[in-house]
Design goal:
CATH superfamily of the largest domain: DD-peptidase/beta-lactamase superfamily
Structural class: alpha+beta
CATH topology of the largest domain: Beta-lactamase
Helix content: 25-40%
Length: 382
């Protein structure tokens, strides 16, 4: 009897120690601090690690601005990780039969099958569009926008393309619509413009602005209290200041225009919580996505591609990830892995408010720590 009591107390002590230590696990903390010391432009960084629905590590390092220490409650712009949110919202509409992946995107008189967005909405020169765009515009479907296989430019507007291009002739300034000479669905070409269009599709299909739909109908505040989007040229409260050295532009120039492809803000904790929802075996998905939809989100269109629908997907769907950066001085990464039994998920989110390089390197270090940590060995075998 005495042995049983001792055993029970030992188990209780181990579990209690784990629960109290999981937010400041020394191996992860030491690795992050060691990594930070090697960075030249470090200002602040927030990291969160979650297993399924349990937060196992969360900590902030450095400064939120010139004077205030960073906390895990501070929000960061997440850059292109916004695309993962946009893609999931599109797939929710597909699940609800309000949209099809095979729906044509554009409507125009020359297209045999009418689409969702009237080309006139784009308000570009008819002469230029006749010359460059309509060769393939009728073939673009919703799935091509999701997978970056529509042949669209990386950039969103002619002005943005001109600013970042050496093209000088008038015609070529407007050639941003199609970035390369290839048929739709045949090649991968990363496109912010494609995700801008997906935001417009969400607005048209839901009869509400993209931001309102995401905040009020999709990522419910009861689950994601910190996830928000930038209104026009106005920063959210409890958001970090960004430190940039490359001169890409002011805060307002970047964040007021990026909508469905790069304008979301979040804490590291809410972002990592979002990532865990893409395990198709999860019991309750807080976005209402079913198993079939999640599998479709992580399905690539061709074997040689790794970008599925809002995520780079590896290891036959067992790894999904997305990174983000903005010239204002921002880096973000959200990376998730399922165990070999496709049951449990561990996700890592890392947000930084300066140009600190690839955060994927740090996320991989954290996953290595998890694999080698005794406290996690029985929880996860990735």
């Amino acid at each position: 009897m005495k042995k049983i009591i001792v055993f029970i107390l030992s188990v209780f002590f181990i579990q209690t120690t784990f629960l109290n230590a999981k937010y400041t696990d020394s191996s992860i903390n030491n690795s992050v601090e060691s990594y930070i010391k090697k960075l030249d432009n470090f200002k602040g960084l927030s990291i969160a690690v979650m297993k399924n629905d349990k937060l196992i590590f969360a900590k902030a390092y450095g400064y939120a601005n010139a004077t205030d220490l960073l906390t895990i409650k501070h929000r960061f712009a997440i850059g292109s990780v916004t695309k993962s949110i946009t893609a999931a919202a599109i797939m929710k509409l597909v699940q609800e039969d309000k949209l099809s992946l095979n729906d044509n995107v554009f409507t125009h008189k020359i297209c045999k099958k009418q689409g969702i967005i009237d080309v006139d909405y784009l308000k570009y020169s008819k002469k230029i569009m006749d010359k460059y765009y309509f060769v393939r515009i009728c073939d673009i479907q919703v799935k091509h926008l999701l997978e970056h296989t529509a042949g669209l430019s990386r950039y969103v507007s002619p002005r943005e393309t001109i600013k970042r291009s050496i093209r000088k002739t008038f015609d070529k300034k407007y050639q941003f619509f199609f970035a390369k000479e290839f048929k739709v669905a045949q090649e991968y070409h990363y496109s912010n413009f494609g995700y801008h269009l997906l935001g417009e599709i969400i607005s048209l299909k839901t009869n509400m602005p993209y931001i309102d739909y995401i905040r009020n109908k999709f990522l419910l505040p009861s689950y994601y209290s910190s996830i928000d989007f930038h209104p026009i040229q106005k920063k959210n409260q409890k958001e970090v200041q960004y430190f940039s050295e490359d001169g890409f532009g002011s805060y307002e120039q970047w964040l007021s225009r990026n909508s469905a492809y790069a304008s979301a803000v979040s804490t590291a904790i809410d972002l990592v919580k979002f990532g865990t929802q893409f395990n198709e075996n999860i019991k309750i998905n807080n976005m209402g996505l079913n198993t079939h939809t999640i599998k479709e989100i992580k399905t690539v269109s061709k074997k040689r591609f790794t970008y599925a629908k809002g995520w780079t997907v590896l290891k036959n769907g067992r790894v999904w990830q997305h990174g983000g950066r903005l010239g204002i001085g921002l880096r973000s990464v959200l990376k998730c892995k399922m165990d070999k039994y496709n049951k449990d998920t561990i996700c890592v989110s890392i947000l930084a408010n300066s140009n600190v390089g690839r955060l994927y390197n740090l996320s991989d270090i954290v996953f290595d720590d998890i694999k080698g940590n005794r406290w996690f060995q029985n929880l996860m075998k990735i």
